[in-house]
Amino acid sequence: MAEQKVRWGVLATGGMAATFTADLVDLPDAEVVAVASRTEAAAKTFAERFGIARAYGGWEALAQDEDIDVVYVATPHAAHRAAAGLCLEAGRGVLCEKPFTLNAREAAELVALARDRGSFLMEAMWMYCNPLVRRLKALVDDGAIGEVRTIQADFGLAGPFPPAHRLRDPAQGGGALLDLGVYPVSFAQLLLGEPAGVTASATLSEEGVDLQTGALLSWENGALGALHCSIVGGTANSASITGSTGRIDVPYGFFFPTHFVLHRDGRDPEEFTADPADGPRASLKHEAREVMRALRAGETESPLLPLDGTLAVMRTLDAIRDRVGVRYPGEDLHERRSGVRGIAAGS
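Given the sequence above, the corresponding structure tokens read:
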């Protein structure tokens, strides 16, 4: 017997919304019933492209549509708090793109709202839903490389991006860290949890966003994480985890890997490969399936992306921004700093 379809709403009509919607309409147990944009024209164009029945020229109408089980929020991240909050207030479940919000304070507000309403909420960190990434985590958790000593990860794009681009716009939460650096940070915390210490350095643009950032994270067990992100240089986009008895190397695209190599002391290297059916962005479908599984099970958050883990990542991103001096319009510096207490500045 076929499972009842989960009814989706899509809030925003940009590139990421289009990519995710294309995958949703390809899933037999998903139905995209409505889309919203700030303008009715943009919503109608998007709806016609994907065969969506309803197009709203405003977020409120989408949030109030009771035919929707869950809303995918794909606005620029400076608007995540407002868009996701509107949907949660109306009783809709929410899958919110990464970075979850601009800062830890906003993230905590959304989590508190979802828990108060008993509504489903999940960050769209699709890397966490990737089967090969989950296999890598299981190997590390099972001690395949002993105790983790170091994690290295980077994500950089060559650009150049003009000053008017969203990645350079402070009003849209621009910069390398929130858009790209969230992946190395999330990867490190998937394996080791929230760090005890953070040091960081960055190259800032004239607009005040980070063009590239390097961060060194430290954990109480002595492990270190060396992370880098950039919008001015195309990096290897790879990751490596070194343990006391081995190493795991993940080549280009560590956040949607096709394979990784396990090196264990005294043994031949072992290669782990993705299912051939999993294309480069199949993690988006895995993410959608996880949302629908959780909704059918009556869960308000996913065990793959627990909200406390999302909050921990946001605290680390805040700590890095605090170290390098990136502040966005409208942020209260004291309030933002209050979200990173407990994370030492390091030495």
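The longest helix spans residues 307-324. Try to locate this feature in the token string yourself.
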